[in-house]
User: Which sequence fits this backbone?
């Protein structure tokens, strides 16, 4: 149960990192990525995964 | 028309000779000084006199820089595509490299050491400075610790601003720009496909209504705390122009210091929604028509260059490519504070001199009863006519009549696609740019382009090279409308 970032489409704006309630997102190496071990898909905390809701590029934060 | 003396026939004279010949301007600094424009509260003048974006006058002397530390944004605008990046592209939201707060602070220090005109550090994205607040704040804190004389300024869509107003005040951020495009959520829905707020993406009218409410809250909170607020509005033909006069009235009533109505920049190559769907920007005439409807124009900003989120330099110039990360020195020994202080002293004297000269010229022109004259000016800054016609990348357009000199707008002649074309193409572009402007003042022009410009009815004059803009315009205007008798004396 985790989301992932489609790196080639990512603009690296970091909005997902700001919104992630689980501190699962970070800038590692040259791109943002989601730590599957920490990601909860925001279940029980928000109606929708926050990374996907704030991401400016369609289909870039998607279910892993 | 015999009474019109063609200044075009005169070549460069010394300033004193020219001053005598044209019956104009005292140019000595002994003519007296003024603390600031007579029509402005001294406390406000103190805040804006060094800020090129808040004072048209200041933009002749002072430089600003933006650092692109804030890429994250909380809304989507149909005129924005932050994935796009081009070193030759000049418009908001575009950057060539993103910086960490530490890198940004180093860049500011490097620029401050090199550019004594620097007075303002702004954060304008490329996303939203108030939403990406941690990075914005960290950058400002680092810079303020090292360069306390540099003013801090931020630009935002307003959605996140109410959450940070107290910090903005505590950090001495005196200037905040809010981009507000409409007061109507139905119109907003055509500009903002979505707004992310309190953990949820709100689409359409619902999102636009949330954004509008937060923008009004931000404006009121900032004004109540004495922060100067500039409102930027992107003029989008067919979408929001009908509400622009009302928007201007409301933001003024709520205490905005300035309203900057900017033309939409739209091109399919930018990859924005508006660009891809063929939404056009306004013509210069359409923009001016809206500006003119906004009353006396006292609170309108007309000298905006819609700069990039990583611009460096005077408005209208971008030295960003000189200060990319790879070009920054590892350690920056001096911060240039003494040079900046010396420069500011010089500006204070220069301003006093410029004002005195303009007042003297104004006295000459005050008796003319004639229609206003539009004049294009080539300037590199300093409020003087000091740029070669062939080097001008933009023309500053002024209107002069017996009531004085008013800045109207600037018109660019350096369309980024011009590069590589011949001189002839460039001149055609300039002639198009100067439509409706019968006179241009510059420091020098070659005979061939002067003749070509004359053929299309544009007189280019280089006789007042190095003169103050206002003085030269008023002298020109008075000269053109001098009585035949007086004209004969001068001739």
Assistant:
């Amino acid at each position: 149960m985790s989301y992932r970032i489609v790196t080639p489409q990512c603009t690296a704006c970091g909005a997902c990192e700001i919104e992630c309630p689980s501190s699962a997102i970070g800038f590692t190496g040259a791109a943002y990525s989601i730590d599957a071990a920490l990601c909860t898909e925001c279940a029980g905390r928000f109606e929708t995964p926050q990374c996907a809701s704030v991401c400016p590029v369609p289909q870039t934060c998607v279910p892993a | 028309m015999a009474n019109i003396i063609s200044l075009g026939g005169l070549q460069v004279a010394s300033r004193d000779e020219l001053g005598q010949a044209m019956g104009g301007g005292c140019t000595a600094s002994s003519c007296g000084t003024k603390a600031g424009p007579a029509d402005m509260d001294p406390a406000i003048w103190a805040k804006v006199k060094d800020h090129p974006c808040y004072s048209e006058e200041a933009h002749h002397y002072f430089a600003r820089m933006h650092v692109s530390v804030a890429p994250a944004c909380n809304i989507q605008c149909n005129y924005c595509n932050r994935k796009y990046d081009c070193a030759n592209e000049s418009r908001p939201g575009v950057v060539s490299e993103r910086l960490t707060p530490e890198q940004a602070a180093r860049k500011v220090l490097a620029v401050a050491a090199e550019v004594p005109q620097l007075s303002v550090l702004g954060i304008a994205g490329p996303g939203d400075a108030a939403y990406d607040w941690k990075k914005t704040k960290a950058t400002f804190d680092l810079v303020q610790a090292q360069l306390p004389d540099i003013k801090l300024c931020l630009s935002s869509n307003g959605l996140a601003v109410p959450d940070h107003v107290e910090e903005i005040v505590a950090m001495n951020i005196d200037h905040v720009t809010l981009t507000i495009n409409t007061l109507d959520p139905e119109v907003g829905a055509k500009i903002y496909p979505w707004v992310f707020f309190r953990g949820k993406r709100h689409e359409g009218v619902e999102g636009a209504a949330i954004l509008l409410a937060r923008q009004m809250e931000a404006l009121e909170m900032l004004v109540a705390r004495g922060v100067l607020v500039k409102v930027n509005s992107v003029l989008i033909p067919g979408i929001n122009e009908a509400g622009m006069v009302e928007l201007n009235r409301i933001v003024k009533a709520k205490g905005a210091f300035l309203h900057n109505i900017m033309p939409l920049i739209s091109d399919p190559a930018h990859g924005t929604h508006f660009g891809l769907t063929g939404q056009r920007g306004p013509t210069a005439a359409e923009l001016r028509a809206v500006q003119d409807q906004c009353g006396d124009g006292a609170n309108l900003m007309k000298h905006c260059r819609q700069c990039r989120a990583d611009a460096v330099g005077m408005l209208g110039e971008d030295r960003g490519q000189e200060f990319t990360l790879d070009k920054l020195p590892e350690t920056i020994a001096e911060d240039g504070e003494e040079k900046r202080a010396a420069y500011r002293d010089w500006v204070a004297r220069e301003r006093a001199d410029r004002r005195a000269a303009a007042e003297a010229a104004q006295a000459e022109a005050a008796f003319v009863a004639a229609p206003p004259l539009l004049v294009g000016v080539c300037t590199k800054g300093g409020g003087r006519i000091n740029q070669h016609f062939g080097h001008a990348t933009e023309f500053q357009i002024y209107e002069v009549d017996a009531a004085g000199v008013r800045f109207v707008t600037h018109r660019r002649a350096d369309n980024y696609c011009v590069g590589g074309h011949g001189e002839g193409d460039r001149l055609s572009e300039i002639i198009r740019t100067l439509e409706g402007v019968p006179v241009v003042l510059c420091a020098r022009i070659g005979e061939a382009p002067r003749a070509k410009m004359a053929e299309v009815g544009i007189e280019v004059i280089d006789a007042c090279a190095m003169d103050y803009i206002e003085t030269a315009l008023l002298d020109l205007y008075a000269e053109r409308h001098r009585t035949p008798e007086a004209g004969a004396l001068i001739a």
Summary: Chain A has one domain: 3-63.
